Each structure stands twice: as structure tokens, then as C-alpha cells.
């Protein structure tokens, strides 16, 4: 049952995470033409800034809450007590962050008209209780929420955003979707808390543990947002930020597919750790490495092979630089995928925040130094190089921390079949532009790549692929038998 639960929750969470990013991706081609590189750059920069305030206001509640709810799934009284304490605490901290945000951004900041709109993101952060459903391993409700809200917001963008001056409308739709989506989850709470009484609510009691987990979480978030922030500050031309943002949009969605398993595994790993089932933890980690390799290598090689034809078709004229940026930054899919397994799926659920935090802190320092040097030299290209090098260092440090608990050579050896299959796929895909170009070339490359990659894995009898196929067959057989 545990395996089925993980697969089901992974699929729900995958949809959940993709839908969070589906708005900028589905509309990326349209907005690239309507808002232009500068408009997209302003959006990216202002949205990154407001996210710092959301992050400080949330103070680690999301990750901490998910883990703590997972620990007490079977005790509704403790679960409700933790929920009330965490939500109350976050309302207070978001309130404080909002006051600072007003004076720092709305009252005196550049782009204050956009910061006023993005205040909705702070409100959305206050009402975000997705951590509760993730801790309960109930991902279905968050998916339903996102499907409705995101489809509505995508429709509104195509209807209302028509020219570059409509950037404010776009930001309103984007932020309001987050706020309404988060509020909608509150209507599911009575099912869990009806008739459950709670005593001795103590918000202060949660603060030390929150701060302990807040440090690695905020460090990680700052690490992920540092490139855009520094690029926007150092380079006056917001087009450079726009180019970088467009390359990131595609990478982010693909990264979501790779790392979504991590969100599902956190409560599972925390529960296994609480029960002392270390053998199962190692088994799940091995499967996570297999899964990450299976997806990452073909995506990396595939993106490089299609970028020359895909970028001009998808974003339109004037975005040729995005081709270079995307090709440089694709390795972070593998690096962040592996770091997600070690950090998010292993170190944090097993209460090794110290090691996780040190690795990310070093990454932040290295990223800041490299960004400062390389952005001055090569602008957005420098930001991409700095990101890849920093992520390599973070992943290497985390590997070092688990060297005595996990057979690293065995985990790395799992990758060779996927690398070999991806290289053969890449060579064949690179031959396609000889006979086709534009959108036709991209379609042929994608279809050829999928058939080639999985065809080779089936021929060489990759155990993990056959395991996945058997699970799909069992699921189909189960559905047919019920009908």
C-alpha cells in the first residue's frame, strides 16, 4: 500500500507543482511577444523581491509544518494543535513583513505601482495551508484547487493582457490566483478537525524549532533567487533579466517534474525515520536516484538538441540569446535533482538540518561571489555559469555528508545506462535539422528522442523501466477489471 500511496501522491503532486508554474509557461510565448523582454524582466525582478518578504514572513512554516503534521498523522488532537499554532504564528510574521514591505517597496521603491499589486502575494502567503495536506499525504485537494484557479487565470491573461502597458493586469491576475487558490483550501479543513478539541495552544513553543528549520529553508530560497536579484541590480537593461527569466521558465517546469517526488517523499521519509526503518529509507533513496537519472539525462540532451529551433518558434524574434542561456544552464536539472534526493528527501526528514544548511550556505556565498564577477563580465550568461558551478558545489558537499550512510559509487553507477541512451538519442536528434527546420524539426526531434531513448532502455533490459511498465500494466488491469 505504501508504494501505491507514493505513486499516487507523486502524480498528484506533480500535477500540483506543474500547475503552479503552468501559468507562466503556457502563456510564456504569448507574453514574450506582448510584454517584450523588458516587461518580462520587470515582472521577474519585482516578483523575486516580493518573494523575499513572503519567505521571511513564512519563517519556515511550510517545510516545518509538513514534517510535523507527518509525525502526528494518527493523533488528530496534536495535529490540530500544531496547525493552529503554526497558522497563527505565520499570520503574525506575515503582518510584520507586510509593514516592512510597505516602507521598503510600495512607499519609496522603484516600480512601486507593481509592488502595490504584488502585496496580494504576501496575503496569499498568510493563507497558504498546503503544508497541512502535504503532511497528511493528501495531495488530491491541492490539485483540484490549482486546476480550477490556474485554468481561470490563463484564460483571463489571454483575454485581458493585450499590450506592454498591461503588465499590471498580468501581475494582478497572477497574484490574485495565488490568493484565491490558497483561501479555497480552508474549506476542506472541517473534514479533519470536526469535533476535535484542543487545549494549551502555545505559539511561542514552536519558534525555536521553526527558526532551526527556517535557516536552511531561507538559505535555499535565497540561493535560488539570487541570480535574478543580482542581475536586476547590476545590469540596468532589464532585457537581460528578461532573457534569463525566459530560460528559467522552461528549466523550472522541467525541474518540477524531476523534483516533485521529493515533496511526496518528505512525509514518507519522516515517518520511516520516526519508526527506525532505515533499510526502507535506503531503498527509497535508490529508487529516487533511478527516477532522477531516468528523466534528467534525456531532458538535458534533448533540450540542447531542440533549442536552436524551439526558442525562436516559442518566444518569437529577439530572444536568440535564450538559446545560449538554456544550453548553459541545463546541467542544473541533474545537479538539483540529485541535491533534492540528498537534501530534501534525506537530510531534512532525518533531522540533519545542520549539514543541509551548511551546504546551502556555502552555495549562497559561492553563488554571490561568482555572480558578482560573472554578471559584470557576461551579464545573463555569467549568471547561468555561476548557477551551474554553485549547484555543483552544493551537490558535492551533500554527497560528502552522506558518504558513510549511502553507497555513493553504487548510486552513481545507476546512471550509466541512461547516459549512454541519452547520448545516442542526442546524436540522432542533431541529424534532424538536416532534413527539417522550425516547429516541424522540433516535433520530429521530440518524437524521435522519446522512441530512441526508451527503445534503447527496453533493449538493454533496464530493470527500473520494466518495473515502471509493470506498475502501469497492473494499474490498467485493475481499472479494466473494475469496469
Strand content bin: under 5%
SSE pattern, N- to C-terminal: HHHHHHHHHHHHHHHHHHHHHH
Which percent bin holds the helix content? over 70%
Structural shape: globular
Biggest sheet, in brief?
none
Description:
With 483 residues, this protein is mainly alpha-helical. It has one domain. It is built from 22 helices and no strands. Helix 3 runs parallel beside helix 13 and helix 9 packs antiparallel against helix 10. The chain is globular. The two termini are 22 Å apart.
In short:
The protein has helices spanning 2-26, 28-34, 36-58, 61-71, 76-107, 112-117, 119-126, 130-135, 140-160, 167-184, 190-193, 203-234, 238-274, 278-315, 321-329, 332-347, 353-378, 380-401, 408-413, 416-431, 438-459, 463-482. With 483 residues, the chain is mostly helical. It has one domain (2-414).
Task: Please specify the SSE layout and strand pairing.
Elements: H1 2-26, H2 28-34, H3 36-58, H4 61-71, H5 76-107, H6 112-117, H7 119-126, H8 130-135, H9 140-160, H10 167-184, H11 190-193, H12 203-234, H13 238-274, H14 278-315, H15 321-329, H16 332-347, H17 353-378, H18 380-401, H19 408-413, H20 416-431, H21 438-459, H22 463-482
Helix pairs in contact: 1-2, 1-9, 1-13, 2-3, 3-5, 3-7, 3-12, 3-13, 4-5, 4-13, 5-7, 7-10, 9-10, 12-17, 13-14, 13-15, 13-16, 13-18, 14-15, 14-16, 14-20, 14-21, 15-18, 16-18, 17-18, 20-21
Give structural attributes.
483 residues, mainly alpha, 0% strand, globular
